[in-house]
Records
---
Amino acid sequence: MSSELPKVSVAETLANRIAALKPGVLPEATTRKCEDLLIDVVGLCITARNEDYVKAALNGSDDDGPCTVIGHARALTASGAAFVNGTAAHGEDFDDTFEGGPVHAGAVIVPAVLAACERHHIDGPHALTGIAVGTEVLCRLSLVVPKAVHKAGFHPTAIFGAMGAAAGVGAALGLNARQIVDALGIAGSMAGGIIEYLAEGAWTKRMHAGWAAQSGIRAALLAKQGFVGPRTVFEGVHGLFHGFAHTTKGDYDALIGDLGTRWVTDTLAFKPYPCGTMAQPYIDCARRLASRGIKPEDVESILCEVAEGTVHRLWEPLADKQRPRNGYAAKFAVPYLLSAGFVHGGVGLGVFTEDAIRDERVLALAAKVKFVIDPDNPYPNNYTGHIKATLKDGSVVEERQPYLRGGAQEPLTRQDVADKFALNVQHGGWSKAQGEAALKWLAGLYKSKIDLSALRS
């Protein structure tokens, strides 16, 4: 079998590109996106800090140490802090999305790199480089065999997140190319995350980002000490893609081809609503229907054209998506989400409470929502929405949303990101003054030693 192995593996090419990057040389657009990621992730950690799943993650950690758990007084080891912060950042499904994946990079990479840098006294420029590298690797991995990991029953953010976190932490800590190869190889055996949470709205998806974040730290530290991982972790006959996508064939050039000269990180999308990404254009369509003066009671039926690749997560079983079992399941139920957006004029964190998901006006409208697969839907390269509403007077009204708001075609401004941060920290129980002080402090974090103690409370 050794004769079949490549002379230079995908991981080796990737590691050489990463090792060649030096702090302080990122393009301005990439730097700004990483600044936005920092603001967004910290705000998300604060907004979720009092939720039961975050309390369980923190209370279930017995590894106290020097690293900040954002929004909490207690500190943990680097791995522990990365786990809890990643779980919190991803927990409300309000974190960033990479169109084309879909994967959520910020909730994995930012907690991993910040925790590692806080523990090992690394400066801001190295942390910035690590966050950019980790985000880039995670996003590009999702392009190698699009949709295949989801189809196989795994959560791509969890699988590729461990690899991205290993690369990002490795870059921040200054690992050489050989060590980065080992870190990637080690992380391949730490990757995991099944999507069975969809069945009843269990909490496990929330921890996928945190688990990937802490795995990346552990892999990088092991590699730094000489622990050897397989260099063919990606393309090998028993490698990552074989295990999680059931193939070793893929577009590896999408991962390594122009890495370091073109940054897909620049196109990251920030969500306007705290729920599944592909549902968001349908919420926009529903809001526009309502803005025409149409009442829920006027609607006879709603038919949505959807991408086949989203059906198993967001549309089926249809009865469960029309009447979700709990607030978390509602985040992945398009009939409920678009109906909530129609009735309430938007979808905020408040529509996922146990009382809110029993709102009879919303549920009555959701029961009228059906779907049909559009074979020409551009998913995952673009997230679109199309609603055709038949009214009780026999008229038909349609709305289309051609792209994800907050994404590459209509990105959020820095002020939008800051406004979202303010709302999130307020939801998490911080005062306006606390939020404003934290936002000002975050503006200088990439220029100093990474010490997050100001975010403890």
---
Amino acid sequence: MEVAKLSLVFLIFFYNIATLIPSLRADIGEFDEVWQKRAEEAWKNALQAYNPHPEEVTSSLNNHVNKAIEASTNTTDTTGAINYGFEDDDLNGVNNTVVSSRRHLRGRHRGRRSLYNGRCMATNPIDRCWRCRKNWAKDRKRLANCALGFGHQSQGGKDGRYYVVTDNSDDDVVNPRPGTLRWGVIQKEPLWIIFAHDMNIKLTQELMVTDKKTIDGRGANVHIAFGAGITIQFVKDVIIHNIHIHNIVRTNGGMIRDSVDHYGHRTASDGDGISIFGSSKVWLDHLSMSECSDGLIDAIMGSTAITISNCHFTHHNDVILLGASDTYTKDSIMQVTVAFNHFGKGLIQRMPRVRWGFAHVVNNDYTHWQMYAIGGSGRPTIISQGNRFIAPDDRRAKEVTKRDYATEAVWKNWLWRSDGDLFMNGAFFVPSGRTNTMKLPYNNLQMIKAKPASFVRRLTRFAGALDCRPGRKC
């Protein structure tokens, strides 16, 4: 019944999209015929990507996690990956000091692998699909087969040729030069974008990414920093992998090319690290993100089929926003998986904050927050499984969850579930919604349990940008 109601809402929206154009503008200075067509196509794509049975996706992810851990037997498998047995060591020192259980973190903007000098370890099912292969650089597109969760359909630029970024400049946003990142992301054809060498890219204006693009930073130390961020607007099939994104600032806007055939006026940008707007089939993996003017990652305005995995987040206030408005009910189609991430030092809130949609938050490590970890409003569904939550010492911030703009009489009906989570230093999760899993809103939601949270430290050990070099196991 719930799915039928949503389908009716979606059809009404599609046939009346013209009446909603003002709310879809985002940073578009002139919502011309090109943008209107993109908005219409993006909504069709979102409806196709929306899964009316999200339990199928979450169960699949959990099944992969369990298989990966069962296969960890201290042997080399047929792919060449070294599989180490997991040690249930995350609880050591719990009764001593919380500091001993928190991660020893590196300096800002450095790769996670830099502290590890042992043999290659692929500790979760996404990484086991591609990592620890000596010839990974000759088979880069294998990565496109490795996504799990709601963004698993994203193929990025798998069907296209390789494009090599050789020029880190960004001084012409209307007529970008071949060799720059901006030139690559606006092309009509699918592209798998890689980098010729280490580089720091300071974006003059927001980087507009078109359909079927992969930005693959493996093999180089790539930073997008101290300028504008990345915008994924009204497109599909985008993969962003293994780069550092930090110190993103607000920009004034202006004339910006958003495709080979079109450029137009963009208003001021908010300073998000990555903004996903009305887009579907997006996978963000192994990113190191911190210190942006607004959010690190925003997914809003009908975006869906998204996976955020293996990322390392530090030093930020508003980390992940899923759904921007309590009044924009079309975000009911939003489905996002947040898996194997490390929410680390200097974070305050929104890990994630959810409106309307469905968020599967599984096997993440929350070692720092100052206000709360997971929040929301507008009746979202949040399933938290097998996460580790280490509360701050502040007694006012022990609660993992935070609900906004609703009384308890209202939010008690929102489905927020904690399953197999580990709570340390006084952390606690306030659940809500029906307890009978056979009567959940999403057609008898039944999920295989995620791996116990005591394994999270291992599952997320290599979160963030990796130090991958051709000819060596990554």
---
Amino acid sequence: MKQQQNTRKGCTGFRKMSRRDALQAGVFGAMGLSLGDMLRLEAAGSDAFTQASGTKKEAKALSVIQLHLPGGFQQQEAFDPKPEAPVEIRGSFGVTKTKTGDVLSDNFPETAKIADKVTILRSLVGRVPDHGLATYHLFTGYPKTAVIDYPQMASIVSHELGKRGELPPYVAIPNKHSFSGGTGFISSAFGPFELGSDPGARGYQVRDFSIPNNVTTDRFQRRLSAREIIEQRLREQQVDPNTLETMDDFYKQAQTLLTSSQAQAAFKLDEESEATFQLYGRDVVGLKGPDNRYHPKGLAERLIVARRLVESGVRFVTVNYGSWDCHVDVQKNTLDQMPALDHAIAGLVSDLDQRGMLDSTIFWVTSEFGRTPKVNRDGGRDHHARCYSNLIAGGGFTRGQFYGSSDATGAEPGRDALLLEDLLFTIYHQLGIDANKELLAFGTRPIEIIKDGKLVEGLLS
């Protein structure tokens, strides 16, 4: 078998991923939608109906912020260092002690200071070390198959819990991950609102977030009236009512985002203080870029917007940061990206705690898998799914815990192996969703939200 070429940018499968077009819970041509758009919605938006089964649970958390580190995050240089292992395993970094007496890599001094507020998961078990397949599994809880397309966790949360205010229940910053799947067999109405713009970049402006300059208020209202007339005629012609309801939801959501100053304010950074930006590490940089300059990473701004969104009622926010596919020179990859990550994690946890939001917000740091215990001949680490690390905080999860452990080299779980399905099941539980509940795919086929998952009580306070 031909081996994939190793480069600093990552393996071929990771470099070549392309963004899938997703239906936006936003504006289509300033409230104009073509028949083609409607037909695509009809084709893509098959509804799922809830079975009678499923136990009503008390929600411990209202929202989730998922910070995803695509490419496969190196746990040895982060949450699970191996200081007693040989150098080819432990790598080139030392450790820093936490308030709990445990250690993190010395790349995480700020996170070490707030370790008493989070849980480090050191024994997570995945299924396959492939970027696309592992990312899909992480976001849906199911292996990818050619038979059924499963919905993302955030879409399930949107479907089960609905909106909590004016904003969409599911927002992706800056966009959803291209390997993460979509809404699967549930309606496209439960897909993400994608910003289409990076809050950490110059000229940040949410895509399709304002009425075009050439459209006056009167003209905008006339378009709304025209849409209502067309929709009424479609109903009279007995067009699928589920499709029309989905379209109506898109329109109402778009109109809210265009006309509500409160909704628009949630996406902005103008009201944030300089102290908050510093808390999240806005000015923290890594290595010099190709232009021989240091560049802020933008993660601070992304997480501040995420916090503002859950504060305003958004149920689930996904944030992507970095490129961690370090087959070559893991040390360089670490030094470039981890300083900003360390500050941002500590900043968000501290900010949520200070605002009284940590108990009601789950903050979850994920990657599709980890890296191999042994550094390869190119100074990098390769894909490894059998044992890796996550971080989780808030929402009723324990504080100050290092859950599970890997063995002496980090190759396999040494204690309390944590299946990904069980972790997702437990997060659903904290949100008040019974993950044993069945949804009907294609109108007749019952499918559990998480198949054979179980509650991990050792993670909960």
---
Amino acid sequence: MPGSTGSRRRRWARALAALLTGSVLTFAALAAQAPAAERDAAALPKHAVTGYWQNFNNGATVQKLSDVQAQYDIIAVAFADATSTPGAVTFNLDSAGLGGYTIDQFKADIKAKQAEGKKVIVSVGGERGTVSVSDSASATNFANSVHSLMQEYGFDGVDIDLENGLNATYMTQALRSLSSKAGSSLVITMAPQTIDMQSTSNGYFQTALNIKDILTVVNMQYYNSGSMLGCDGKVYSQGSVDFLTALACVQLEGGLSPSQVGLGLPASPSGAGSGYVPPSVVNNALDCLTKGTNCGSFKPPRTYPDLRGAMTWSTNWDAVAGNAWSNAVGPHVHALP
């Protein structure tokens, strides 16, 4: 999940070796499609900040939705839970862990955030998530159950944070089915790990490209990661501006619209096992990608002024640090060209 500390180094090492010895990047030549962000993201700003809100107490500041800092434009509620029906999800508010926060208060807070122009979505997956969409039936169950949660709680959409594999064929089916039910205002975000977006042949990348016309933003997790390839074929290590810009370039040159790419970082050192960078580094990466300034050694082949923005795990860990992340990154994102 965003914030996951599980070890994936062997998987990364194998995948990186395969990429280094084989075809490094396969860039898709896609017909121009109007992304959801340009189509009807219903009042989302051109540049947006996404924050995950924890529906559990893991030592970070316990928050109600009403406590979430105003800089966040998209609030991803973490997480929906799997059910005994393949592909289906439900949501269980952790009232006890959140100091007696009630469902009625939660629903009212969603409406209040929406009245402020924010989007509140439900995130599916996480490090411990067991949701699997692997056939047509489970794809249908996923779409129906997420739509039901949207109707019950008022969620604006869904975040895909499946960290145990993703089937592009059936996740595409599920999200298109959900879109047909929810309409053009549906918000769809994704939070893949770095390895998931190294090549357009990967299931996550395929899914993002398959739903490009309805996709809002991909906020890749630039943390808890091994070294990865940038779009120049060089290897970069996490924790630097080059890691952010060179890996974002893979997505930007691989077929996603700039408005569909965001930079996902921890809000504090406690928010992830590794990969934390100060907010100033996030802002430098945003400047490098959008304006060609404040770059490190890696220089993108072009600028991407429509880059969507940034994401953090989590609003709760941000609060622990006095909202230092959102106070620095939020205004910077919103002031981008």
